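thought: user wants a sequence for this fold. calling inverse folding tool.
action: design(structure=
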């Protein structure tokens, strides 16, 4: 709660700054305004030390002074720079990715601390992990002497969120701080200078989308992981004794794709087919004519047609067509294409590819590697980028050729994320080694290919007739290889075909009837898997590689010798088990909807808390259902792991958790019946305890109480379950029976009095906020935070008009 309140303050503070800035900019004396703000020292924070160093080198023309921070991995670079129309001192430092992490509050952290279903409502908080505390302290120390903070993290969703973590930490010690965001796609002098001249406001919507994703991943991941691990370790004690059986809402559909393909292969029944083949040997080579019917599955039918052909086995050339054919040069490179092509052509995994690409980017060799854009922006100077490559002894001559033939003419795609250009080289180098060199070379060659010309060829098709059956053969002559000269990753083979005259007849060398078998689809490659994830909206271009890595490291899948994905027994069993419950959890739909909502949050079109509440509730229902049908999981897994152990009924009940009586009138989380610590008596408690202390302590006169299936028709919010009571003799007014079913929702005046139902008073307007202030679960937050934002300006604007 404290953290949240601080965050609110921070945001309010930020908006005020921005507000005054905009007001200033709208007036005539905008530069005056900036001059009036006494900015003398500016703290800059990049996402990694390498990036901080690269940016500092550019801004200072290599004249920066280096100081140590409290974290030995994150240095401080100091230099003078002309910013906000004046000379300022800049301290450039860095974080190491996310500075804060999200975790459940202490009472829910231990595995056996609560029923996993409670993790959908349990309180969460952001905290600074031990290994980042020194980075946080450096920021707190440095920001003291600064009047402004400029966020230089990577310009994508995670980067924006990391930016807000930095802002929160810095604002907490310096509330008057002015905050700006640098937007850039590459660490090159032009790009960095432009970013300094057009500083903008950080985008809270983009950061919010990450917060939502983090919280959902934590709740969904932890609840399912604890549930299935604890249960399956008991059911298969020998096989799974110490195994963590993790669950993630992205990871699972990813596994689902692998299993689905494997099952398609298993279910495949090969069929025999038959076809007629015509061969013609000539002085100019051997020609293979293929049948227009392709193939037949009926042997007799094929045989009849074959016999007709053999009655007069002479071919008549009925048509010869000849037309130009081109092979298209590649589209500008986006992240998904880079991952797929590197995996296919260079045999470098997606994870490794992104790691190397990040490094090449922070060193200034390539533009930002996380992009969905495959069209070049008009203002990008492609000519100078091509020029940079002309000195190379492998592709320099080709680059020179592009310039001599009228300059770059890129082929463009249709995707544009409005944030980053396609991946392209930004600096020439010949000093790289190993896979770094191979990937850089690939990016350069791809870029040059894209900027050149399609390959041109000439295709010839010869159609012939033998006994009314039609056959054809193709030939290809390559006229200009063009982009293929620089792009060895594509193949285009010429195929010689002799000259045939229309109307002429010839005797084929052979006419044969051959048979074959249909073959199953192949197991998925990494490139196939990435394509499927992209198609179905699982993860983002930034996370595909991580999800694939996770299912590998959990041993849910393995790789065959030719690098294809094969599901393991545990992976198979889990997918089959959950699918048999009817929720299709291994199918992509559930997660894809979430991913689409996150996009809307990042665009400011949907509210953070509404989206969070909706998906928490949806996954919670799926979870409750999964626990109820958990036996199906045991059954599916026992096909792979051997006999499933039976659990005693009370263990089953315990796993399901206590049935919900009603929603808490104070925080709207579930209320359940619990046994008192001493085992004597029962009470109704909110699962939000300890942050919500709403509870009904039944008096000693109540001997037994349990939930009835009947639901009260008047009490709200629906449903309020009735309770079955058993009272002590003599404790009730004489005419009341000692055992009855009653409602504690407030509709029953007598019961209200007998039980002294104070908890209801907390509901509605004017309720004492006895526990409200200490409750910070997401539902509670949403009640008072979920109102229209009074932001002054929805669109980011330039923070400073220059000089
Ligand atoms: Zn409550
Ligand atoms: Zn009622």
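)
observation: tool returned 803 residues.
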């Amino acid at each position: 709660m404290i953290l949240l309140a601080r965050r609110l303050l921070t945001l309010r503070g930020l908006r005020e700054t921005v507000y005054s800035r905009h007001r200033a900019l709208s007036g005539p004396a905008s530069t005056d305004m900036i001059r009036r703000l006494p900015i003398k020292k500016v703290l800059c924070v990049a996402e990694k030390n390498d990036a901080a160093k690269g940016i500092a080198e550019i801004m200072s023309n290599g004249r920066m002074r280096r100081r140590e921070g409290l974290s030995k991995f994150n240095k401080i670079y100091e230099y003078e720079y002309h910013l906000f129309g004046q000379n300022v001192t800049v301290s450039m430092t860095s974080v190491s990715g996310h500075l804060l992490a999200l975790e459940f509050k202490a009472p829910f952290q231990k595995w056996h601390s609560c029923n996993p279903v409670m993790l959908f409502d349990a309180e969460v908080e952001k905290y600074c992990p031990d290994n980042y505390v020194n980075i946080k302290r450096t920021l707190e120390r440095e920001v003291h002497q600064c009047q402004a903070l400029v966020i230089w993290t990577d310009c994508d969703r995670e980067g924006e969120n990391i930016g807000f973590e930095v802002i929160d930490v810095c604002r907490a010690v310096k509330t008057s701080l002015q905050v700006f965001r640098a937007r850039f796609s590459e660490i090159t002098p032009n790009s960095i200078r432009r970013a300094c001249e057009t500083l903008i406001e950080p985008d809270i919507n983009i950061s919010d989308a990450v917060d939502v994703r983090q919280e959902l991943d934590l709740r969904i991941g932890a609840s399912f992981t604890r549930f299935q691990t604890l249960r399956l370790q008991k059911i298969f004690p020998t096989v799974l004794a110490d195994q963590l059986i993790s669950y993630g809402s992205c990871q699972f559909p990813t596994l689902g794709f692998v299993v689905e393909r494997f099952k398609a292969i298993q279910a495949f029944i090969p069929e025999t087919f038959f076809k007629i083949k015509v061969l013609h040997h000539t002085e100019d080579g051997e020609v293979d004519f293929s049948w227009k019917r392709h193939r037949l599955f009926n042997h007799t039918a094929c045989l009849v047609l074959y016999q007709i052909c053999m009655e007069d086995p002479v071919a008549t050339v009925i048509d010869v067509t000849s037309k130009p054919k081109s092979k298209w040069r590649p589209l500008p490179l986006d992240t998904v294409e880079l991952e797929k092509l590197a995996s296919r052509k260079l045999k470098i995994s997606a994870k490794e590819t992104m790691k190397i690409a990040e490094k090449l980017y922070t060193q200034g060799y390539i533009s930002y590697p996380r992009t969905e854009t495959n069209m070049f922006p008009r203002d990008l100077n492609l000519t100078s980028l091509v020029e940079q490559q002309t000195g190379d002894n492998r592709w320099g001559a080709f680059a020179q050729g592009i310039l001599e033939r009228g300059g770059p003419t890129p082929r463009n795609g249709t995707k544009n994320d409005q944030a980053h250009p396609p991946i392209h080289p930004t600096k020439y180098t010949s000093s790289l080694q190993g896979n770094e060199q191979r990937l850089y070379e690939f990016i350069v060659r791809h870029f040059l290919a894209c900027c050149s010309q399609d390959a041109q060829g000439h295709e010839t098709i010869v159609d012939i007739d033998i006994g009314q059956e039609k056959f054809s053969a193709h030939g290809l002559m390559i006229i200009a290889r063009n982009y293929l000269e620089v792009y060895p990753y594509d193949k285009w083979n010429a195929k010689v075909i002799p000259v045939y005259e229309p109307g002429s007849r010839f005797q084929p060398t052979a006419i044969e009837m051959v048979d074959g078998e249909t073959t199953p689809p192949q197991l998925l490659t990494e490139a196939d898997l990435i394509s499927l994830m992209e198609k179905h909206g699982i993860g983002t271009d930034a996370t595909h590689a991580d999800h694939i890595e996770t299912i590998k490291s959990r041993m849910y899948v393995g790789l065959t010798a030719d690098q294809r994905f094969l599901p393991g027994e545990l992976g198979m069993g889990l997918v089959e088990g959950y699918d048999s419950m009817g929720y299709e959890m291994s199918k992509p739909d559930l997660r894809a909807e979430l991913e689409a909502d996150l996009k809307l949050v990042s665009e400011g079109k949907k509210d953070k808390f509404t989206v969070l509440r909706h998906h928490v509730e949806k996954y919670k229902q799926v979870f409750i259902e999964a626990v109820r049908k958990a036996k199906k999981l045991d059954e599916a897994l026992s096909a792979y792991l051997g006999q499933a152990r039976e659990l005693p009924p009370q263990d089953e009940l315990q796993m399901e958790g206590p049935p919900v009586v009603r929603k808490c009138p104070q925080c709207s989380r579930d209320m359940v019946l619990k046994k008192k610590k001493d085992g004597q008596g029962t009470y109704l408690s909110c699962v939000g305890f300890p942050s919500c202390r709403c509870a009904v302590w039944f008096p000693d006169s109540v001997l037994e109480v349990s939930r009835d299936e009947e639901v009260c028709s008047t009490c709200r919010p629906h449903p309020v379950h009735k309770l079955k009571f058993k009272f002590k003799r003599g404790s009730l007014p004489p005419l009341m029976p000692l055992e009855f079913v009653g409602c504690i929702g407030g509709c029953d005046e007598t019961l209200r009095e007998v039980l002294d139902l104070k908890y209801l008073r907390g509901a509605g307007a004017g309720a004492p906020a006895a526990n409200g202030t200490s409750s910070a679960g997401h539902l509670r937050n949403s009640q008072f935070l979920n109102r229209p934002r009074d932001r002054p300006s929805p669109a980011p604007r330039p923070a400073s008009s220059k000089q």
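thought: summarizing for user.
answer: Here is the designed sequence. The pocket of zinc ion (ligand 1) is lined by residues 664, 666-667, 669, 686, 688, 692, 694 (CB under 6 Å).
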